[in-house]
Amino acid sequence: MSDKTEKTERLSVFKTYKLYVGGKFPRSESGRVYEVTDSKGKWLANAPQSSRKDARDAVVAARKAFGGWAGATAYLRGQILYRVAEMLEGRRDQFVREVADAEGLSKSKAALQVDAAIDRWVWYAGWTDKIAQVVGGGNPVAGPFFNLSTPEPTGVVAVLAPQESSFLGLVSVIAPVIATGNTAVVIASEQSPLPALSLGEVLATSDLPGGVVNVLSGRTAEIAAPLAAHQDVNAIDLTGADEVLAKELEIAAADNLKRVVRPQAVDYFGPPGIERLTAFLETKTVWHPTGSLGASGSSY
Amino acid sequence: MPTTANAAPALADVTTSDSTLRRFLHGLPGVDAVGLEARAASLGTRSIKTTAKAYAIDLAISMVDLTTLEGADTPGKVRALGAKAVHPDPTDRTTPATAAVCVYPDMVATAKEAVAGSAVKVASVATAFPAGRAPLGVKLADVREAVAAGADEIDMVIDRGAFLAGRYLKVYEEIRAVKEASGAARLKVIFETGELSTYDNIRRASWLGMLAGADFIKTSTGKVAVNATPANTLLMLEAVRDFRAQTGIQVGVKPAGGIRTSKDAIKFLVLVNETVGEDWLDNHWFRFGASSLLNDLLMQRQKLATGRYSGPDYVTVD
């Protein structure tokens, strides 16, 4: 063979973006896809266009995963979230490219977003075993009781990811939901869902049990409506909804008294605070009898 | 030696001896396994929506044999199950009652009390369920006790060991004996299709059961790996159809085990409608042996009624 064989042009392998539900990567049950373009209108890929049945299946998966995830020790949850950050670090270039395409940013600006997102995972990983000390604790009560309040996860949380910030914003709304032991059904940004769908691949390889995070792409309004009305969803984060949609969803969500987080303007580069952690917690208070008080005023 | 098949005078001569019975059962046409599975799968793709779905769900609820067959069954659990069978969804009184509750023989009296005053029947498994590995005397005593305690229906298991060894007449006689011991109670004969290994065997067992006077033929106990599948249920439906064509006797079918979702249940109803027709679309002739299926049917029913997806918080924990 001669050395001069001309270099054959390699056909690149296109990636089929798929949903992430119950730890698997299904297509939409409806078989639909929609075209995802970059900020200049150039075609990037086809993303699955989820139907209400995909939403229903995702809720079933999230409910199934809830017991195990909520019951895992806070330490373990922290380790797993940290692992997500590790995995993201390894795929940094891919996410930089996807974010740059999705949001029309330069490579360096996109890199800032991705780095901030990775740091955000680490930040929330640290909070898993500290939030209980901050928002829970022993309560002084006038009686022979040891009175203890602990934060408990709410359950299945539907998350409408921010429409603009396709990755940093996405991470900033998912990580606090699962850090405290909730499970999430996430609707990715309608215009730029690709970073979210790729995040599913990272989560699948990060020891995160299947079903803890479920990522759907498609028309936000179409998927959000059945989730807001779903009787087995315990909370909904409306970040990615516009004003009209948010109002509609909040009305539907009132039916089974979901916890609702209304959309608000957020600078995702700023310090996140713990509002998003506490938004999906409920407080359980137990009264533990310590025996009657003795003559000395103490039962001990 | 039994010389008359009470059920089927037209086929009386086939049960006169072991060899005639074998000749008859082995003379049944072989099953086209690929064709059977393809047929079952293609019928499973029917889309049943809106009013048809509502009808199917209510029909399926009315066909459920609400079952609890655990070693850990307590009288309390059986009473709770009975209450659920009578009013599956207490928040919606238009929900039909289930067909029956299915329990172990020692729980029959408790179950009978729990469903008293309703149309819900009490079915009892018997004959050393689920293995069926006990002497005939013990099996018959099991049946008599269950009937004496008030069971309306008896779910017996066949002796799979004898069947697989080719001793068909033994199986036949055992079913006859159990039928006699059951008296007025309707007899469901469980083949444990998952242990019969071939479709041909399932067809033979179906005919054997029907010749022996079964009121119902039932796929499985729910205790082995492979339970009711669309294919083996389709095969049994074909058998009851052919049996009625030859003898004029209608026999019921009960798939049991592994049917957990409304979607599955509706697929079975499509099989029934397409194979044996409307005559069997009634809980006198078709049943589902299930426990968790009922909750899924109720959740789907709530979804149809309200337009919102329901969840496990809105049905009972069994």
**H/E topology pattern of chain A:** EEHHHHHEEEHEHEHEHEHE
Total number of strands of chain A = 10
Computed Rg of chain A: 22 Å
* CATH class category label of chain A: Alpha Beta
CATH fold category name of chain B: TIM Barrel
Strand count, sense and barrel status of the largest sheet of chain B are: 8 strands, parallel
Name the CATH superfamily assignment of chain A.
Answer: Aldehyde Dehydrogenase, Chain A, domain 1
Strand order of the largest sheet of chain B: 7-6-5-4-3-2-1-8
Unreliable residue runs of chain B: 1-5
Structural class estimated from helices and strands of chain A: alpha/beta
The pair of chains with the biggest contact is: A-B, 10 and 9 residues
Q: How far is it from the N-terminal to the C-terminal residue of chain A, by CA?
A: 91 Å
CATH topology of chain A: Aldehyde Dehydrogenase, Chain A, domain 1
Question: Which outline of chain B best applies?
Answer: globular
Report the CATH architecture of chain A. Answer: 3-Layer(aba) Sandwich
Question: How many angstroms separate the termini of chain B?
Answer: 46 Å
CATH class annotation of chain B: Alpha Beta
Helix count, DSSP H or I runs of 4 or more residues of chain B: 12
Whole-number count of domains of chain A:
1
